[in-house]
Amino acid sequence: xxxxxxxxCGPREESEFSCGGEAHIVRPLEPxxxxxxxxxxxxFMRKNIKGEQDEQWYHSAGCRRWFNAQRNTVTYKFGKTYKxxxxxxxxxx
Amino acid sequence: MSQSNRLSEGGQIDRTRMVTFRFNNRQLxxxxxxxVASALLxxxxxxxxxxxxxxxxxxxxxxxxxxxxxxxxxxWGAKSVPNGKAxxxxxxxxxxxxxxxxxxxxEYDLFSFSELFSAILPAGFYYKTFMxxxxxxxxxxxxxxxxxxxxxxxxxxxxDRYEKxxxxxxxxxxxxxxAGLAAAKSAADAGARVVLADEKAELGGGLLRSRNAQxxxxxxxxxxxxxxxxxxxxxxxxxxxxxxxANFLVMNQRLTDHLPAAxxxxxxxxxxxxxxxxxxxxxxxxxxPIVFGNNDLPGxxxxxxxxxxxxxxxxxxxxxxxxFTNNDSAYQCAVDMLEAGVEVSxxxxxxxxxxxxxxxxxxxxxxxxxxxxxxxxxxxxxxxxSVKVASLAENDVPLTGSTxxxxxxxxxVSGGWSPAVHLHxxxxxxxxxxxxxxCFVPGDSVQQEQSVGAANANFLPDDAIAEGVRIGAVATxxxxxxxxDLDGSEETANVTGKNALGIQPFWRVSDPGSRLKQFxxxxxxxxxxxxEIAAREGYRSIEHLKRYTLLGFGTDQxxxxxxxxxxxxxxxxxxNLAETGTTTFRPLYTPVTFGSIAGREIGPQFFDPVRKTxxxxxxxxxxxxxxxxGQWKRPWYYPIGDESMTxxxxxxxxxxxxxxxxxxxxxxxxxxxxxxxxxQFLNYMYTNAWDSLxxxxxxxxxxxxxxxxxxxxxxxxxxxxDHYYMTTTTGGAAHVLTWMEQWRxxxxxxxxxxxxxxxxxxxxxxxSGPKSRAVLEKVVDDIDVSNAAFPxxxxxxxxxxxxxxxxxxxxxxxxxxxxxxVPANFGLHVWNEVFEAGREFGMTPYGTETMHVLRAEKGFxxxxxxxxxxxxxxxxxxNWIVSKKKDFLGKRSLSRSxxxxxxxxxxxxxxxxxxxxxxxxxxxxxxxxSIEYPVAMIGHVTSSYWSPTLGRSIALAVVKGGHTRxxxxxxSTLMSxxxxxxxxxxxxxxxxxxxxxxx
Lengths: 93, 999
Known about the structure:
- The complex is a heterodimer.
- Chain A has one helix at 36-44; strands at 3-6, 10-13, 18-22, 52-58, 66-72, 78-82.
- Chain A is mainly β.
- The relative contact order of chain A is 0.23.
- Chain B is α+β, with helices and mostly antiparallel strands.
- In chain B, helix 6 runs parallel beside helix 7 (329-339) and helix 11 packs across helix 13 (562-573).
- The longest helix of chain B has 19 residues, at 461-479.
- Mean pLDDT of chain B is 93; it is low at 491-495.
- The chains are: A mainly beta, B alpha+beta.
């Protein structure tokens, strides 16, 4: 059972959370201006990184707030967690 | 004679408390403090079990969790435990235990004939033999399962209570031997909150089998100190069974299994879920057997177990003993036996030297010391009677030309020690092979844990204590975040020096000419020969070998046998043990009852919560049949007398169409939306525009995923400038709320809008039918309900039966219809009043089945029934609700090349040519009636009913290019092979102009 650091609540049990997939995918401001390929890229394409990945997580059985987390997809280890709109200084990691 | 093998003094047992217990219906006596194993041995009983495959007689080999053979059915009835280890079950007054896997009894087991066929029962026998023909397997399986297997799982309901505790500590010490005790005290002295868990009934670990006065004094003293310390929680009878991520450990504590009768309010077991900042693994080491001919006979035991029975329980497991060893520790066992009055004929040591002091002592007391020799075989019926000893040649092969036989009733064996690295491995560590000590030791720590004492191959108690003291302090410093010069990592290697026990690797007596079986895994009857065969057949990976030969698959998880099996495979493959490696150490360390894991959350109400509306008692009174919708119980239909379901649904439907019906719609998802950006947010959520909606009005909305597919629908009403009341499908409520939260929080955090689930706060009764206004008029206190004053798709805040209410004029039946919303606590009151008021108009309660028929007659979709995650609004023929002007979630996807294909499955009505045939839902649709497979499928039926209003069947379907096929004839193929012709039609079958809801 992992211990996940919710940036709103502090460390909580893994079972309180759900994963929302890759983070920092910005919804295009003008979808109608995009080609099918560009829209499909936003809609379907995910990096699926082996290693450190930024993900969206949801404290679904807790404060019900979303946040971002750095997680290693190989070791399952969580790195930094941070609120939406925040970014991590890569030098810190 | 009772307890003939009990020494007259000594031991930790309580001689003032004699208890009686029954073994295989035989009454025996023991003392409080005995385990079943020590009690049986005290009574001279060695033969307690039959083996898994060959039904060979088996005895007690060990003294703890490592015991592979002595498994018993413990207790009876609902409290019964199958496969309890005699070495772990504590004796109490009235305990009943019996042997398993034998018939008619353990002394004369008729299934032992299977050994006669052992030559044809090698590894993989079942795989190879019972493969073909495949359909016979079910017959083989019954026979095989009867012959093999262990105890009986109880089928009665478990009446015991089990509980769970969530806990934390600074330092968790696992194991109460010398290293663990020292670490716990050292950690507490440094200020840490410590939990010390030990699986036995009393602390002491390896010291329990020692009679060294100095050690016993130390043990008594530290136990006293720990019990006084307010920082230390000592958990006895508590096994740490799992080590998971982030220093999360699970412990199983047995609270009452050692008591004759637990009171009703006492829990039987407690499952501790613990987060520890630091873990000290002082799990000790497990002594290894040596593989030789007939090494499974009762009376062949581990040296450590012999010492423990003598010194802890004052029991002598035999009268005349031989010791067989490859290391120094066994000599202490020989000394213990001599001091307990056991005759020790010989110590057989494969090495060419022994520990001088003890060696001389033994020799002066007449014990023959045979160096450079090995026991090559044992003999006896149901108990060892003699052993054959041979000298070893240079290459450790026995010189069978010159053997000597020693008669004995006890053979104490030590093949060295294996540190219990299980938890370290579970934590993610990789055990590494230590050449010096010939064992696997903990590798680098992955989590916050350190191993100490025998678990780290520091086998001598003094070294273990020193290491425990040091690491206890290190763990505390780390747990409390103190700066420290102490370093645990470098110095955790052996303190005294390498190979303190002088272990010389010796796994198996090579004796190719012998026909005696050499057992490796005693519980699964895996022999050395099985492993040889597997290696010859190409099993080179230890993991594959394990699965082929069952090595280590038992309830003991190979605690004794695995290492020898790995060594034999290594020999066969000509590689070293480090290359072979270990199998994976998985949780749980020892078996845990299902009761403990389930805890108190037992019963169907915990399997899935049941949600009931506030009107539920009324539904029960009115004989409602219920349907599960998500977690909700919804009335399905209300039979009167012996009406059939069809009769009920026809009656309910016609009541709504002609008079008035009432439906409990409280389960609809309801979300309150507040904030100045609420309209803008709804614009994104729904396909239609919301800016223009007037306060007091309602609007139907369709919600899409970003892929353009329909996700949910419902009516949303505008309560105020910044205030909406959204309804969702019953099943989609939670998902819609989460969906909106995600977009609000992650994509548009600047939007000022908030959501509150109010599903449970409101009771909704939907009154439908031409007479519904007349009913409403009677119950509403303060508003004009005329068509002009209260038009379709509006709502009013008003008072109904004295209760503040919101009444929505919306319709899911196509009839004049009102949804009365009142606070849930007043729901039943208002429902009763409304029903009374409706009585004179023939008001009929109706359930979800009628609701489905009514909406299908109107061609209204149900998301999740008529849609399946691949339907766009265009596919549904709902272009009218899709805004061309504004952006919304999923909009761009609607113009993707795949979404504009003309041959997409589209939503249509379907009328069978024979109006009496009701198509099965899910039926496949094809163009041609000919059944020549494969047939191209052009769609399927999504909803299908008998329409009492129209007096014929109706169906809704999705059909490729369906919107352009109106009037075309297609066919539904049934499972029977029959083809039913049907005509593609407008999905609105009744009141196509939609006039009835506007009256």
